[in-house]
Amino acid sequence: MARYTGPACRLCRRVGEKLFLKGERCYTPKCAVDRRRTPPGDRSLRRRRRVSDHGLQLREKQKARYMYGIMEAQFSKYVKKAFRMSDSTGESLIRQLETRLDNVIYRLSFADCRRQARQLVCHGHFYIDGRKTDIPSFQVKPGNVISWKESHKDSPYIKAVIENMPKRPVPEWLTLDVPNLTATVHRVPTEEELETTIDTRLIVEFYSR
After folding, report:
1. From CA 168, how far away is CA 207, in angstroms rounded?
2. Is domain 101-185 in CATH 3.40.1190.10, yes or no?
3. What is the per-residue pLDDT across 171-197, written as a single tens digit (0 to 9) for each?
4. Do 134 and 140 form a contact (C-beta atoms < 8 A)?
5. Residue ranges of the domains in the chain?
6. Partner of 161 at 20 to 30 A CA spacing, among 103, 195, 201, 209?
7. What CA–CA distance (Å, rounded) separates 154 from 146?
8. Residues 6+ positions from 116 with CB-CB distance below 8 Å
9. Running DSSP on this structure, what letter comes out for residue 139?
10. Is the N-terminal amide bond of 166 cis, ω within 30° of 0?
11. Could you tell me the fold of the domain covering 1-49?
12. DSSP 8-state class, residue 128
């Protein structure tokens, strides 16, 4: 199955809430979720039927996939690995997603959205502990130092990034050095610091069938 390349706002409308897939646009009145409250393709005026338990579980799983930009097979691997961990399965799953390199780049405000962060990583703009890393799914670990490629620091994009940093609160498990455009991973995120808009219980139930 190929990666979804269609309108990002369509995915937000499909799950019925903002996934912040288009950066700053999601905070403006132009957001499609605010303007068009019906799911894509829904033209019926009839009363909609109640969503089944399986439908709720599927929607939550899809929401997590859309939010982090992950393919189905890769997401299943994260879930299977979470089942084998000693911590709570849902907590282990979100921790794996939050410590992906592309998500960390987004959390540091180096990119406006995860899709943009993924593109920046794939183009080789970042180094981990001095080594070029162009794998968006790379799992960062405590002690890792993330830095921009030195030759790219004078680009107009980087200068614009510095002027507005940080656009969002930086998680406490990360430290951002704005003048040097570097960041350090101090520890793995705790349960309180993980993404809270995803009901991991429904995802675990979906894969436990």
Report:
1. 33
2. no
3. 999 999 988 889 999 999 988 888 678
4. no
5. 1-49, 101-185
6. 195
7. 17
8. 23, 106
9. B
10. yes
11. Ribosomal Protein S4 Delta 41; Chain A, domain 1 (1.10.1050)
12. E
